[in-house]
UniProtKB/TrEMBL annotation:
NCBIfam families: 3a0107s01c2 (TIGR00972). PANTHER family: ABC TRANSPORTER I FAMILY MEMBER 17 (PTHR43423:SF1). It comes from uncultured Solirubrobacteraceae bacterium. Residues 22-261 form the ABC transporter domain. This is Phosphate transport ATP-binding protein PstB.
Amino acid sequence: MPKVRPALDAPERREGAQAAIFSLKDVQVAYGGVPAVENVTFELVKNEITAFIGPSGCGKSTLLRCLNRMNDLIPSASVSGQVLYHDQDLYAPDIDPVQVRKRIGMVFQKPNPFPKSIYENIAFGPRVLGMKGDMDEIVESALRKGALWDEVKDRLKTNAFGMSGGQQQRLCIARTMAVEPDVILMDEPCSALDPISTGAIEELMLELKRNYSIVIVTHNMQQAARVSDRTAFYNVDKLEEGKRVGKLVEFAPTEKIFTAPDDKRTEEYVTGKFG
């Protein structure tokens, strides 16, 4: 197994609210040699929520998966450029991608609880990773962080599939929290949920950013405006032979993106003129 640099498992905390947690430079992702998204350069800031927005096919989710090496699981995918996490190259040969995914958790579009009890959903990750401590306390702490404890504390041994969709998604967030990540990536976490459940997830995100850095992909402009501190807008460039590639158009504080963007394409997208 590749050697893991100690700093990846216990990242150095730079002082100041504006410390960069990710720095990307000229990042490109290709599938089978065909670029899907390219020329992405920006920094993501600690203890903030960053939203990725843009039309379908612009590479938002593809880029999100670069941040915890999920694209490694796709045989045809290749990543070039530089992805630094706490000043370390995530794609260096001595970095273990399993450790990367422990530090940088992922919540997917559709709730995906394991076919186990609520308790076992939370305990699974800590057990696999050999985390020390009282498992009951680990489970309770994660469920509290996921704003679920009061709803499920009397039925921890029941199957997670008996929960509502919104509860299942919060369970998945709590499951991510159980392994003590540094960053939480969310790929359209509310797209399958009703408005009340969506509101609960948004409130949870705002609470979690006190202790975590969050990156969210969303098609919901109102959601990006409500919860994010910074927003990255991606668009699709059409190439010859019908090929398309996603590109970062603008990255700025969310208020600027929605009220005074620098690029006309950003304004047209956030005002609903295309997308």
